[in-house]
């Protein structure tokens, strides 16, 4: 059993998958990917994985509980988990260990109850009868710490008795839920550097989508720091990725950006720019075998996120568009961004191509006809799109990546050439 600072008498972690993962013909695939993610996220810890039928355990050797919890909170597909004490099956031993657990964990007087579940049907008592037997013995040993309240207890002591042992634990911690990342296929995330897009990517990963980022960098029109900011966001998101590795495609948008600003009516600059984003993204998605485009759009937040704008912008592509945040309140988005530790990066004041030189009076009710009329003033934009897709740089990002664009040039292309040993081309 485990003792010491941030340690306890717990010796295993019981891991439960989300309900949806336990249904349907894909259960085996989901479980195998979830197990792979668990191994990947706990390989740096002093724990071992133990599989039993429909149960999964981490056996704790000598490890900090907080580190284990932190690792599990990066694994999509886990419904909940509990730190458990294993015990012999006889009632006296269970009572003795339960008393030790309560004494160790309950520091002020609480109300409590015992809940028992038995999967070993050879036991002579029902679950309810076992609960009554255990409760009496436990209460004798901890009457100064707890009083019984079976309706609204502050602490519930759970006892699960199987064929080989008893598991004793006090509570369960909610996991990320959803599905193991990657089981749903690949999506391409438009990541700007703001608050919304990393959260949208995280929510897509929670539902099993393997996410690759695409960022439209416009250096030197925009600062190299704006591109570095996206690298830092990708590092945070890679914590939830399969193999803790994600790809970020940097599109050199400068030439097309200049064309849009020079030739498009100010009220349609943002509309046309985003239509170009989608055209480029569809081509990159095809190259990367991505099935969908993911965006951080939320209805009404900005001019380009009205229903009219969304309709006009997405008309240029046939690939499905997923908007995980489409009806989410801004404060809830901010809360999620803090949860995944991207908020402080997102609010850094470096402008990207969506915010720099943004004209006033952008249309909130654009239409396809007027967008097409505006685009006729851009000569050979299809050719430019093909060029920048071919020139797109793909960065491979991990949580420990040491990629500092801002130390190697004023443009992403300069930094790419200086750092080719650290990054991978398409």
Topology, pairings included?
Blueprint: E1 12-17, H1 27-42, E2 47-52, E3 55-60, H2 65-72, E4 78-87, H3 91-105, E5 110-118, H4 127-142, E6 146-148, E7 155-161, E8 166-169, E9 173-174, E10 185-190, H5 196-206, E11 209-217, H6 224-238, E12 246-252, H7 254-263, H8 269-288, E13 292-294, H9 307-314, E14 321-322, H10 330-339, H11 343-346, H12 368-375, H13 381-390, E15 393-397, H14 412-418
Parallel strand pairs: 5-6, 5-7, 10-11, 10-13, 11-12, 13-14
Antiparallel strand pairs: 1-3, 1-4, 2-3, 4-8, 4-9, 7-8, 12-15
Helix pairs in contact: 3-4, 7-8, 8-9, 8-13
Task: Describe the structure using short key phrases.
6-stranded mixed beta sheet, alpha/beta, disordered N terminus, 14 helices, 20% strand
Question: What does the model show?
Answer:
The protein is an alpha/beta fold and 426 residues long. It has 14 helices and 15 strands. Strands 1, 2, 3, 4, 5, 6, 7, 8 and 9 form a nine-stranded mixed β-sheet that branches. A six-stranded mixed β-sheet has the order 14-13-10-11-12-15, with helices on both faces. α3 packs across α4, α7 packs antiparallel against α8 and α8 crosses α9. The N terminus is likely disordered.
Question: Per the principal axes of the C-alpha atoms, what is the gross shape?
Answer: elongated
| Class of secondary structure makeup | alpha/beta
**What is the averaged pLDDT score?**
90
Our measurement of the CA-to-CA distance between the termini, rounded to an integer number of angstroms, reads 49 Å
Strand content: 15-25%
Tell me the helix content: 25-40%
What Rg do the Cα atoms give?
27 Å
Number of strands: 15
> Main sheet, how many strands, which sense, barrel?
9 strands, mixed
List the secondary-structure elements in sequence, H or E: EHEEHEHEHEEEEEHEHEHHEHEHHHHEH
Number of helices: 14
The residue ranges in which pLDDT falls below 50 over 5 or more consecutive positions are: 1-7
């Amino acid at each position: 059993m485990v003792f010491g600072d941030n340690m306890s008498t717990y010796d295993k972690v019981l891991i439960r998958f989300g309900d949806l993962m336990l249904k349907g013909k894909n259960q085996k695939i989901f479980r195998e990917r979830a197990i792979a993610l668990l191994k990947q996220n706990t390989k740096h810890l002093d724990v071992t994985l133990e599989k039993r039928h429909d149960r999964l355990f981490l056996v704790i050797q000598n490890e900090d509980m907080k580190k284990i919890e932190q690792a599990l909170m990066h694994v999509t597909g886990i419904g909940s988990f509990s730190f458990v004490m294993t015990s012999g099956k006889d009632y006296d031993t269970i009572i003795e260990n339960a008393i030790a657990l309560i004494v160790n964990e309950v520091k002020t007087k609480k109300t409590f109850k015992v809940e028992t579940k038995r999967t070993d049907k050879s036991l002579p008592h029902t679950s309810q009868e076992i609960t009554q037997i255990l409760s009496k013995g436990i209460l004798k040993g901890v009457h100064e710490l707890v009083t019984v309240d079976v309706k609204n207890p502050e602490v519930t002591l759970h006892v699960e008795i199987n064929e080989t042992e008893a598991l004793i634990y006090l509570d369960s911690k909610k996991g990320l839920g959803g599905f193991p990342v990657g089981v749903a296929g690949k999506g391409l995330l438009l990541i700007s550097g703001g608050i919304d897009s990393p959260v949208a990517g995280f929510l897509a990963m929670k539902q099993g989508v393997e996410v690759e980022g695409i960022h439209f960098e416009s250096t030197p029109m925009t600062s190299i720091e704006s591109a570095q900011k996206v690298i830092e966001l990708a590092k945070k998101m890679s914590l939830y990725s399969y193999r803790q590795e994600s790809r970020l495609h940097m599109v050199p948008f400068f030439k097309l950006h200049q064309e849009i600003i020079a030739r498009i009516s100010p009220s349609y600059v943002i509309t046309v720019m985003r239509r170009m984003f989608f055209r480029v993204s569809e081509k990159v998605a095809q190259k990367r075998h991505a099935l969908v485009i993911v965006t951080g759009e939320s209805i009404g937040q900005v001019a380009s996120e009205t229903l009219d704008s969304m309709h006009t912008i997405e008309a240029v592509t046939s690939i499905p568009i997923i908007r995980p945040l489409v009806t989410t309140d801004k404060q809830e988005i901010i809360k999620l961004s803090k949860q995944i530790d991207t908020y402080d990066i997102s609010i850094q004041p470096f402008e990207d191509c969506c915010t720099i030189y943004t004209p006033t009076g952008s249309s909130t009710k654009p239409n396809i006809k007027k967008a097409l009329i505006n685009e006729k003033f851009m000569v050979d934009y299809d050719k430019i799109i093909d060029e920048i897709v071919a020139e797109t740089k793909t960065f491979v990002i991990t949580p420990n990546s040491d990629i500092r664009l801002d130390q190697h040039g004023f443009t992403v292309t300069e930094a790419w050439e200086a750092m080719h040993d650290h990054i991978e081309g398409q």
